[in-house]
Each structure stands twice: as structure tokens, then as C-alpha cells.
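Please describe what follows:
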Amino acid sequence: AMYAASQQGHHKVYIVDEAHMLTREAWNALLKILEEPPPGVVFVFATTEPQKIAATAAPVISRLQRFDFRRIGPTAIRDRLRQVLTAENISADDDALTLIARHADGGMRDALSVLDQCLSFGEGAITAERVREVLGLVDDELYAEVLQLIVERRPAAVFPLIDRLMDAGVDLAEFMSGAAEMLRGLLMLQVGAQPEEVTEALRGTLETYQSQLEPGDVLRMLRLLADNETGIRRSANPRLVVETLLLRWAMLDRIVDLQEVLAGGKLVSG
């Protein structure tokens, strides 16, 4: 670091990744160079656990500037992927980019990595079907079936549905994660919001069923899912956990509007 950059006016940048792994002795060794850095020399310390640095790097904290990076929204990821594909003259379905952006969970690097996998997987335009095949995602039609059996209160339909998922080698935890997104999107439509992380095909399904379930019922189903999420991922028999959860959804007592009950009572008493 004491040597100047190879060209006048340029900088030398040292990036130390996983900086929370540095010991107190390592930080002490850096103290001198951080106190009086040579011209054009920049140190960048990257970490996902800044609280550990606060404990071990106390001598140099006052010499550092802290910048907190946040997750990137799915809309911004989708737009960036579209820019990359446009620059490369490659076409892609909007639903395909929506699936990639949702799977990336706020990470642009992960989104670009998945996009690269999809490009390597086949030729031509990137479709939602190709993305699902690469990522092992479930088709939207299966989520439509889940909503249908819930609305029609058909618990017996749960078992053949799970059989199909198991035969296809679907990760049940990922399937239920998609079910959570489906219910969240449904609830958003019911309360007047617009879900941005659902495909157009799934949005059509949600619009079909949004008036057939009460928002309170959807909220209760999401709560049941949240209560069982850890069990699905850690259970030795995740199939049983998922089947039980879907059965509870299909057999769930529906919320009855108080005004309707009162109105019905008046009719009866009259």
C-alpha cells in the first residue's frame, strides 16, 4: 500500500471481504496505514456482521466511514435484468424476469447468476417455463389448484396434489414458500394493494378467487404457515407437515361478517 498507483491520478483500492473475521491484532496492525494512508490509497472493508467489527476493531472505528447496503427491490432487479438483456439483444418474458427477481431475494448478483444459468440452459427467448425448470419452481397452475381446493373445501384433494409434487421431486419447502407469496398477493388484492412479485398468470388466478375468501381467512392461513415454516424445513417428514397444513387450510372455519349475522337474525326474528 505504501507504493503509489501505477499511473498518475489513479487509485489503489484494497477490498477486504468478510472483514469481521479479522482479529484485534490484525486491526492493530492496520492502524498505522489507516491513520495515515498514502495518497490515492483506499481500503474497503466488507462484512455482513458489522456488530463483530465494532467489538474487535475498536482502535480503528473512528478512522472508518460506514455505509450500510440494503436489499434491492424486485422491481429494480427486474428492470436491471431487462437492461442487461436489451444490451445483449436477448428477449425474455416479463414473467420470467419476475420469477428471477423474486428468487434473488434482494441480491442483484444472485439475479444475474440465475439469468446466466437460464441463458446456458437453452437458446432463444427466456421463458417462465425455463426459469421454473432451472430453479425447480412449481407451475402457477398448481397454486391455482391449491386455491381452488381451499375455496371449495375439498380436503381429499390435498393427498393427490402432494403425490404429484413428490413424484416430480419438488422441494416442499420451496413449494410452500411460493404458496406464501400466493396468499400474500391475494391478501394485497383484497385490501386494494397491487402485488408486484407475482406473474401475470398467477395474478389472473388471484383476481378470480379474491372475492371468494375473506381477507381475515387469508390472514389466518398465512399465520398458520408462519407457525409451521420451521417444521417444514427441519422435519424428518416434511410431507406430513405440508399435508397437515393444507388440510387445515381446506377445513378452516370461515369468518362470518357480523353485519350479515345481524341481518340474518333480523330476518329470522321477523
